[in-house]
Design goal:
about 20% helix, about 80 residues, six-stranded antiparallel beta sheet, alpha+beta, SH3 type barrels
Length: about 80
């Protein structure tokens, strides 16, 4: 089941499944930061108002704004 990165809770793991259509500005930026299709990550923290979201990807912590996180489609891992 594909969902948005913004919808995951702290501690959940997932893989990047793709990007929302029409998010080309964010897509280039996110690809440059290492969020390529199939990349595994873990949600570390979410700010009280949901912005930003911190994930652990490829051995480093990456903080994404709410709009950026909404542009990433993910598959949850069990």
């Amino acid at each position: 089941m594909k969902t948005s990165l913004r919808d995951l809770d702290v501690g959940e793991r997932g893989k990047v499944a793709g990007f929302v259509k029409g998010s080309t500005a964010y897509r280039k930026k996110l690809l440059a930061m290492g969020l390529t299709r199939g990349t595994a990550f873990t949600v570390n923290r979410v700010a009280p108002l949901g912005d930003p979201v911190e994930i652990n990807v490829r051995g480093f912590a990456l903080s994404l704004r709410k709009d950026e996180a909404a542009a990433v489609l993910v598959e949850k891992e069990d």
